[in-house]
Amino acid sequence: MSIPTAPTIRSNDLATKREIARLFVGRRSARVLAVAAVALITARLVVGDFGRGDVIAIVTTVAITGTVEWIIHKYLLHAPEDSWTTRRLGTGTGHHQHHLDPTDVDWLLLSGLDAGVFVTAFGIVTAAWSLPLMWLTGSSVPGGFLTAWACAALGLIHYEWVHLMVHTRYRPRTRYYQGLARHHRLHHFRNENYWLGVTSNTGDRLLRTLPKHKTDVPLSATARSLA
């Protein structure tokens, strides 16, 4: 006699913040990112020497978030299946599956390993811009870098949370998150080449992929397949 298995929860089964939070905290990606964020914040507190570098790091991270999301979404997640990044790094494979089945939580959220890879990669990218910027502004170099990296880790947590939320039946109450949810649904079901931001639309505004009206762009036949 076979033992029945529990039904798989899909994102459109969730209708409240409590349900979303329960699923979210149970995912390995959220745990990996939370541990990384706590470790980075703790390291920043240990280093001390707080000052203007921390403000510069926070403001810069917030300012570039939308553009960074746009670039990753466009050139890594939407990379063709025969591209180098997809063949070597696998960056497009999971996202292609997500577009085919948007409510499958296993493709919607990062795996624990992918979360670790992303937060590490963000650390490398953050070092590339924050270390010289801290030096040029006469700020604490290690302090500013750790602040920026901690912000990046928190940004990844926010990204995962928003991405899950906009794929559920829950409807945000604030105009900002209502806009994010509406734009992301249009990205999936109207045209995959537009509305590439998930937590910010600044990249879409800057790179002209935020139409004033959804009818300004055609209905794409490849929004689900990304083919």
Radius of gyration: 19 Å
| Separate helix tally | 10
Distance between the ends: 43 Å
Profile the largest sheet.
Answer: none
Elements, N to C (H/E): HHHHHHHHHH
Structural class category: mainly alpha
Unreliable stretches: 1-6
Strand content: under 5%
* Mean pLDDT over all positions: 92
What's the helical proportion of residues?
55-70%
Number of strands: 0
Shape label: globular
Short description:
This protein has 227 residues and is mainly alpha-helical. Helices cover 63% and strands 0% of the residues. It has helices at 17-25, 28-47, 52-77, 84-89, 93-100, 105-108, 112-136, 141-165, 175-189, 202-206.
Report what the structure shows:
The protein has 227 residues and is mostly helical. The protein is 63% helix and 0% strand. It has helices at residues 17-25, 28-47, 52-77, 84-89, 93-100, 105-108, 112-136, 141-165, 175-189, 202-206. It is globular and about 50 Å long. The model is unreliable at 1-6 (pLDDT under 50).
Layout of secondary structure:
Layout: H1 17-25, H2 28-47, H3 52-77, H4 84-89, H5 93-100, H6 105-108, H7 112-136, H8 141-165, H9 175-189, H10 202-206
Helix pairs in contact: 1-8, 2-7, 2-8, 3-8, 7-8
Question: What are the salient characteristics of this protein?
Answer:
227 residues; mainly alpha; 10 helices; disordered N terminus
